[in-house]
Protein: Ketol-acid reductoisomerase (NADP(+))
Organism: Papillibacter cinnamivorans DSM 12816
Amino acid sequence: MAKMFYEKDCDLSYLSGKKVAVIGYGSQGHAHALNLKESGVDVIVGLYIGSKSWPIAEKAGLKVMTAADATKAADVIMILINDEKQAALYKESIGPNLSAGKALAFAHGFNIHFKQIIPPADIDVFMVAPKGPGHTVRSQYQEGKGVPDLVAVYQDATGNAMKIALAYAAGIGGARAGILQTTFQEETETDLFGEQAVLCGGVTALMKAGFETLVEAGYQPESAYFECVHEMKLIIDLVNRGGLNFMRYSISDTAEYGDYCTGPRIITDETKKEMKKVLTEIQNGTFARNWILENQCGRPFFNATKKKESEQMLETVGKDLREKMIWSEGK
Ligand SMILES: NC(=O)C1=CN([C@@H]2O[C@H](COP(=O)(O)OP(=O)(O)OC[C@H]3O[C@@H](n4cnc5c(N)ncnc54)[C@H](OP(=O)(O)O)[C@@H]3O)[C@@H](O)[C@H]2O)C=CC1
Ligand SMILES: CC[C@](O)(C(C)=O)C(=O)O
Ligand SMILES: [Mg+2]
Ligand SMILES: [Mg+2]
């Protein structure tokens, strides 16, 4: 049984009298910094001179400095810049400014697990990984809710690493939803697998294939968009609320019969075999090596695919439909 923590298990006072540096102010960075600040934590933001995030963080009322200065000033340093840039920043600005008893924190285990960052033994190293996008970590917190977090301790130099991690997770709102104890290895491998095979790669490929099948058969692209893309969230909201059972209670019996007959024809044994291959390539480091190399040679595949994907019909049709929705007015 997984070990879970909730608000009653977390003591925010483990961050009292401590300064937390949030390095990076993007999707996760803005959410962690603002949620912690509103939870009463002393937060600073670490960026680089010329960063486009710098004025945005300052406008939100946060004290901003370079990553090196923020590391010097803080007791807890949470690295929230892009995974592929973390090793270089650590080497240049963070590592040289760490001292015994500080804590280094991550929201994803990639750089520790794949040994791109090797911290000194006299500091705490922990992870608080929200299981959701940064903008949702922020909006859920503002609504009095939270996104579940995974926590893990890689090094416990002070003896308090887990207590500090739980306080941090509570400070960003995770304890309202549930905090699950894990390891850097489990978080890294499951997160990479989930985003590639299911949440991002799997879902977009499924929506695209459905959209294209309908359009190629002569149906209106707008109709295909509503059916295979827009409605996805509405169906998933029901799963989120009450599981597959509640979704199947809400949909028609016709849809439920089609779900049972056709689902296994779309996601077949072959698909599961490929999923296992994807997982193996994550576990044996092939994916990490490819991603690091892709960055070292200027991201040719990433950039070309991003351009092609952003120009596809599904995107242009969807943009037009979303702009005409009543709640989009004035945006
Ligand atoms: N996105 C998400 O929802 C999730 C992300 N994570 C993890 O969180 C971490 C952060 O990812 P994410 O929030 O997506 O990152 P983003 O790409 O959204 O933001 C990166 C931020 O880092 C800044 N930055 C880039 N390079 C440097 C540098 N050299 N020095 C200082 N600041 C720098 C950027 O500034 P500028 O604006 O100038 O580019 C920007 O503010 C990653 O480890 C990721 O795996 C975990 C869970 C979910
Ligand atoms: C699903 C993608 C994610 O893992 C996340 C939002 O949890 C990420 O790396 O952004
Ligand atoms: Mg994730
Ligand atoms: Mg991820």
